[in-house]
Amino acid sequence: MPEPSVASVDEQLDAERTESIQDQRAERILAQTAALLAQRGDEQAIALLVDVQSVTIDSTSEVMRRESVFLPDVEGGIWGTETIYRQEAVLEVEDHLVLRFTDEICGRIAETLSYVAARNGREDVVSVRARPALPEIDPDWRTALGAHLTLDRPVNQARHERAGGPHPVEDGLTFGSTQELRVYRALKRLQASFPPEDTISIAPLPGVYLRAGHTWSPDVLVLGWGRALIVETDGPHHRSPRRYVDDRNRDLQWQRCGVPVIRLAVEDLQDGDALDTRLREEIVRHLRRTG
Fold first, then answer.
1. Is 41 exposed, middle or buried (0-12, 13-18, 19+ CB in 10 A)?
2. Which of 137, 139, 213, 275 counts the most CB atoms within 10 A of its CB?
3. At 209, is the secondary structure helix, strand, or coil?
4. Contacts of 134 (CB under 8 A, 6+ apart)
5. Residue 70: inside a domain, yes or no?
């Protein structure tokens, strides 16, 4: 097989860099759109946007304008016409969320997104639509999915919220990641340390419908002494500016229900003793009645 030429390798690298820049700009446009909608109080749109996994800007078949361009590659160079097509923002979401992006909601989002896109040098973005995101696939997906089918059916609503592929299962409950499972096990140890008549309940990934008009699944909902606490496990992707804003918006929704939220960085989960101590402190502080 012939080795790729230096020119072809350079072209591929240039194409990858261009694609990366475009993806970053699209992500910035979406983040600024969400932030602006939050300022305007459109909680229904925000509740949907926080669950968007990625965004791309694609061409439509609708002609926006035609421009005269000089084509230097033709011998002697000639003037030609370039057709500029209208663009749309395509939002990748979990399959069961697509129907929530109604024409009316997409229209509201598009109105703000078009303004934001123009401020970012993209005056041609005029519409928004949602489509199902492709699930992440395990390299040995046949074995993984086969094993998944033989497991006892999980009893929590995580099977609806996290249907993108195999996930850890324990006690008949599904978890979004091994880190979430580690937190669950720590909470079980804490649960066992309380007397049977004075303990806590642990609900991983429950489906909860909030007034914002969306169904969310917190990583873990802890119930005890007539109170509730949400425990979220944050991986590195939670540190991006857009995800930070999304997380704060989610936390605000729970706080409006009187439910506090604590967030654990995955780096802090390695030390089991420290994790147990942190969770005990948070449980006592937020759930235990005093006096």
1. exposed
2. 275
3. strand
4. 92
5. no
User: Within 13 Å of residue 80, how many CA atoms lie on the same side as its CB?
Assistant: 9
Phi-psi region of 161 (alpha: psi -120 to 50; beta: other; left: phi over 0): alpha
224 and 268 in a common domain = yes
Residues 178 and 92 in one domain: no
Residue 221, in any domain of the structure: yes
Reported as a single tens digit per residue, the pLDDT across 239-261 is 566 666 777 778 888 888 899 99
What is d(CA 264, CA 279) in angstroms, rounded to the nearest whole number? 10
- Hunting for tokens 């970012």 — which residue is that? 120
Strand pairing class (201-204; 220-224): antiparallel
CA distances from residue 9 to 16, 18, 73, 223 in whole angstroms, order as listed: 11, 14, 21, 57
Identify the domain containing residue 251 by its residue range. 141-286
Residues in the chain: 291
CA–CA separation, 22 and 19 (whole Å) = 5
pLDDT range class, residue 192, cuts 50, 70, 90:
very high
Residues 263 and 203 occupy one common structural domain: yes
229: left (phi over 0), alpha (psi -120 to 50) or beta: beta
Sign of CA dihedral 182, 186, 191, 192: positive
Longest dimension (CA), the chain: 90
pTM score, whole prediction: 0.52
Q: What is the CATH number of the domain that holds 163?
A: 3.40.1350.10
Residue 130: the pLDDT is 94
For residues 84 and 129, give the distance between their C-alpha atoms in angstroms, rounded to a whole number: 20
Distance CA 186, CA 179 (A): 11
Domain co-membership, 218 together with 240:
yes
Element (H, E) at 265: strand 261-265
Query: What's the whole-number mean pLDDT along residues 255-268?
Result: 89
182 belongs to a structural domain = yes
Does residue 152 surpass a pLDDT of 60?
no
On whether residue 263 sits in a domain, the answer given is yes
